[in-house]
Amino acid sequence: MHSCSERKMMTIWSLCLIFSLFNSLLIFASPAKQLCRSDQKNALLEFKSEFHFNAIAGNEKTQRWTNTTDCCSWDGISCDIKTGNVVELNLWGSSLNGSLRSNSSLFRLQHLQSLNLSSNNLAGILPDSIGNFKYLKVLKLYGCSFFGNIPSSLGNLSYLTHLDLDGNDFTGELPESLSNLNQLTNGPIPGSISKLVGLSYVDLSFWDTERGVVDFSIFLHLKSLTLLDISHLNSRSMLDLSLFSNFTSLTLLHLSGNNLHISSTLHLPSPIGSLGLSSCNISEFPKFLRTQTGLFFLNISANQFQGHVPEWLWRLPGLGFRIYKTIDVSGNRLEGDIPQSIGLLKELIMLNMSNNAFTGHIPPSLSNLTNLQSLDLSQNRLSGTIPPELEKLTFLAWMNFSNNMLEGPIPQGTQIQSQNSSSFAHNPGLCGAPLKRSCGEGEEEARKQDEEKEEKDQVLSWIAAAIAYAPGVFCGFVIGHILERKMITWRLCLVFSLSYSVLVFASPAKNLCRPDQRDALWDFKNEFIVQKDDRLSYSNPKTESWRNNTDCCSWDGVRCYLQTGNVVELNLWGSFLSGPLRSNSSLFRLQHLEILNLGSNPNLYGNIPSSLGNLSYLTDLVLSDCGFTATRFDGGPLDIGNVSSPSKLRNLGLGRNNFSGPMLGSTSKLVSLKDLDLSFWRDSLNFSIFLHLTSLERLDLSYPNTRIMISSTLHFPSPIYMLKLSSCNISHFPKFLQSKTSLSYLDISANQIEGQVPEWLWRLRYVDISQNSFSSFEGPSDVFQRSGRQPNSTMFFLGSGNLFTGEIPRMICELVNLQTLVLSNNNFSGFIPQCFKNFNTTISVLHLQNNSLSGAFPQESIGGRLRSLDVGHNRLSGKLPKSLVNCTQLEFLNVEDNRFNDTFPFWLRSLPILQFLVLRSNKFHGPVSFPQDSMNFSKLRIFDVSQNLFTGVLPSDYFAGWSAMSSPVVYVEAIVHMLVFQNYHKSVGLTNKGSNMDLVGSGFRIYKTIDVSGNRLEGDIPQSIGLLKELVVLNMSNNAFTGHIPPSLSNLTNLQSLDLSRNRLSGTIPPDLEKLTFLAWMNFSNNMLEGPIPQGTQIQSQNSSSFAQNPGLCGAPLKRSCGEGEEEARKQEKEDEEKEEKDQVLSWIAAAIGYGHGVFCGFVIGHILSSYRHDWLMRIFRSFA
User: Fold this and answer.
1) I need a labelling partner for 317 at 20 to 30 A (CA). Which of 201, 751, 958, 1180 fits?
2) Which residues, if any, are the signal sequence (predicted)?
C-alpha cells in the first residue's frame, strides 16, 4: 500500500514536470507579447479590406498595416496602454475609396474616442451605426463626399466635443437629437446647414470654428429663422449685414464680435426685438436702426462710432419706448450732449454710455427712468453736478459716474449713498459721501499746496544762488590776487562779481528744458483725457504729475539731451491716455525724439498720422496694445510715413492693435530693425517680406487674421533670437528654423502641427509648442548621451494641449536647468518619473494637469524654488508630499480631482506666500483645524477643500488670520508676478452661483473664494467669517453645520455668491444680509430655518428654490405668507378637537349597538338551552356556583 501511494506521487510529480517544461517551451518559443488585442487587430484589417486604394497614392497609412506587427504601433492608431483597446483612429487623407457600410468592422472598435476619416472618398450615406461609439469625443468627417440625411444617431454621442461634417453633401433636416450633444464646443460650421430651410432657431455663439474662416452665405437660405445668435465666433471672415435684408421673421439677431459691414442704405424688414452688434468694428452709426420700432435690447458697444448720437435713437415711434429695456453704446467715440429725450424711455432697465467723449451736463430727465437698475456714464467728459432728481430712482442698484469732470455735492439718496466711492472717483470737483472729501475742502487744499510749493521753489532758488555765489567770490579773489597791481582790472573784476551776484540772487534756477519743448509736451498732454483704472496696482498716468512751472526734463516719462535741452525720449507706456492721435498733434513738434513709447494705452484710437515719419531721429517706436484700427496711414498704404532711407528704427512695435491691409512701402527701408512686433495683424502676411531685414533679432507675428505663409524652401538670413508664431494656422514645422543657431526663444503654440517634436528643439532656452497636435518626441530617451551634447539649454518647456500619450519621456529629465515644465491637457499615463529630481533645484513651475498619471507623487521631485504646482485631474494617490513644506516660494497648489488619501496638510501654513490652495475632490479626511489654534493663511485667496471627507468643528476664530481676503481686490499685484506667470495657462474648477466654472487668467487675482462644501463639517459657522470683507464666493453647502447664520456675513460687501444649503442651520435669515448689494446668487435651501425672509432687492430677486425645504420660512419669494402657519396650526387643533369628540360619540354608538345585539343573542341562546338542554344548563350554573 505504501509503494502504491509512492507510485501515485511519482506520477503526479512527473506530470507537473512535463507541464512545466512544456510551458517553458511555449514561453520561449512565443514572440514578445503585443499590446494590441487580437479582436481589435482583426477589426482593423477587415476595415482596411473594405476599401480599394488609388494606385498612384503611395502615402496611405493602411499600406503599412501588417498582420505580423502590433496594431497599436500602426500608423494612425493609438491604444489604451492598460487594455489594448484602440482609442484613436486617424486616417486623414489615406486615399480610402468606397462607401462606409452599416455593418463595417469599424463599428467593432467600441472603445474609440477619436475618429478622423477626413479627406477620403467615402461617397454614400453615413450609416446610423456611427452613433454606437459611446465613448467618442472627436469625430472628423470633413470632405468625405457623404450625402443624404445626417443620421439622428449622432445624438447618442454624449461625450462628443468636436464634430466636423463640413465639405459633404448632406441634405434634409437637422436631427433634433443633436441637441443632446451638450459637450460640443468646436469644429467648422457644416455647409449643409444651408439646406435646412425650415430652421427657425440657430445658436452658435462663442463657437470655435477651428479654422477661423466662415462662409456666412450658408445662412442665406434660412429664411424661416426667428432667432440667430452667431456672436463671438472664432472667425476672421467679414460679415455683410445685407445678407439678412430678405429675412422677414428675425426677432433676435446677435452678431457681436464679428467683422461687420453695414451699408448706409441697408433696410432690414424683420421685426427685430433684440440686436447685439458689440465689438463689430463699425465706424458709422447704423441708419437702419431708425426703422426698428420693436427693439427692446440694443448693444452697439465697443465699436468705433464718432460724433453725436442721432436724436432719432431716443424717439423711436410706436411701442418702442414702452418696451425698451437695454441700451449699450459704451466703448465708442460718441460726443456731444446726452439728449434730454432719453427720459422718454421710461421702461429702460440698463443704460451704458461709458467710455465715450460725451460732454455737457447729465440730463435731469434721467430721473424719469423709474425702472432703471444699472447706469454707467463713466469715462466721458461730463461736467456740472449730478442731478439731485436721481434720488427718485429707487431701483437703481448700480451706477458709475467716475472719470468725468463733475463737481458739487453728491446727492444723498439711499441708492446713491450705497455705492462704492470708486463710482464717483476721478471727478476733482465732486465732494461729499461716499467720497472722503467733504464739500469746500478741495479748494483750500489746492491753494495750500500751491503756496507750499511756491515757498519751496523760492527756497531752492536761493540755495542754488548761494551755492553759485561762493565759487564766484573765490574765483574773483584769485584773479584779483594775480592782478593785484593792475587796479583797473581789479575794479572791473569787482564790478563783474557784484553784478553776477545780483543776477544770481535775482534770477530763478535755470531749467534744462527748452520752452518750445515744454509747450509742445503740455499741449500734447491736453489733447487727451486720462481714464485711470484704480483696480490696477500698476496704474500710473504719468502726465498727471506734470506741472507747467517745473523743468519738463524732470517730468515722468521725459528724457532730454543735456547739451541742448531737446526732448529725446517720451515714454508714456500705460498712462491711460484716451483720444485720437491727430495729424497736427503737438507731439510732432518734438523733432529730436529718438524714443517714442505710447504702448498699452488701449483708448488711443484712429489713424496713425503719417507725420510720424517726420521724426527722422526715431530709433524706437512702440504703439503696441493700443486701440488703433486704421488700415492706412492718413489715406496711404500702411507705411511708416516718410522714414529716412535707410531708416534708423531699431524697434518697431505695432502689435495688439486692429491694423489691417498689406505691409507695403517703407518696410524695405527698415534695414536696421532689430525688434518687430506685428501681432494681431488683420491681414495675410508672407514671411518672405522680412528677408531683407538682415539685422532682425526679435519678431512677433502671433495671432494674425489669416494664415502666415512660410515656404518650405525659405532661407532666412537674419540672426533671429526670438520668434513668436502663435496661432498662425501653420500645419508644418518651419524647416528653416533648424539652421538658425542663434534662435533661443520659440513660441509656435496654437497651430495645427502634427507628428513628432523635433530633436533639435532642446537646444533652445524657451520652447512653447502648446495647443498643437504633436503626438511624440523625436529621438530615443537617451538622445543626449548618444549625441554627447549637454542638455543644459532648455529652461522653459510648454507642451500642453497636444496629443501626447504613454509615459512622460525620460529625456526631459536630462534638462538639468529646467525652470518651467507644462505638460497639462495631454494623455500621459504611468507614474511621475522619479528622475524629475534632476531639476528639483531649478524648477519653479510644474504643471501636469488633466492627464492620466497615477501612483504616488515622488517626494524627491519637489524643490525649494517651486512657485506653482498643478497636478489636478489625474489619478494620483497616496499622501500629499511633505517636501512641499520646503517650498517657501510656493504660491499656487492644485491637486483637485485625484485620489489622495491624507489628513489636512496643516504644515502648509508655514508657506509665507501661498495664495491658491485647491484640494477639491479627493479623499482627504479628518479635522481641518487644531484645537485652540487658528488657521493663519495670511496670503490665501482661493481655499477649496470641497468634495472630501473632512470632519469636525471650525473654531469661532478660524478665519481670523486670513488677511489677504480682508484687503482690497487688486487685479494684478505686481509686475513681477505678471512676468513669472504670463507664459502658461492656470485653471482650477470653481463652484460659483450654483454652477461649475473654470477659473483662468486674471480671475485668479480677482476672485477670493472659500469652498468647504461636500464634507462632514459640523458645529456653528465661525463668526470670524465676517472679517473676510473682500470675499467674492462662499460655499459651505452639503455639510452638517448647525446653529444660526452669523449676522457678521453682512460685512462681506463684495460677496457675489453664497451657498449654505443642505445643512442643519436654524433660526432666521439675518435681515442685515439686505446690505449685500452685489450678492447675485444665494441658496439657503434644505435647512431648518424659520421666520420671514428679508425683503431686500437682492434677496427678493432669487428663485423660490433658494429657500425651499425650510418648513418654518415664510414670505416672498415663497408662496407661504407669514402668519399663515399659526392660523393653520390653530385650525388644525380645532379640527383635532372636533374629531376627538366625534370619535367619542361614535364609540358610544358602537357600544350601544354591540350591547343590544349581545342581549338579543344571549336571550336566544338561553331560551334554546333551557328548552332542550335543561340538565346541561343546570350543571353549568352549579359549576359557577
Assistant:
1) 201
2) 1-31
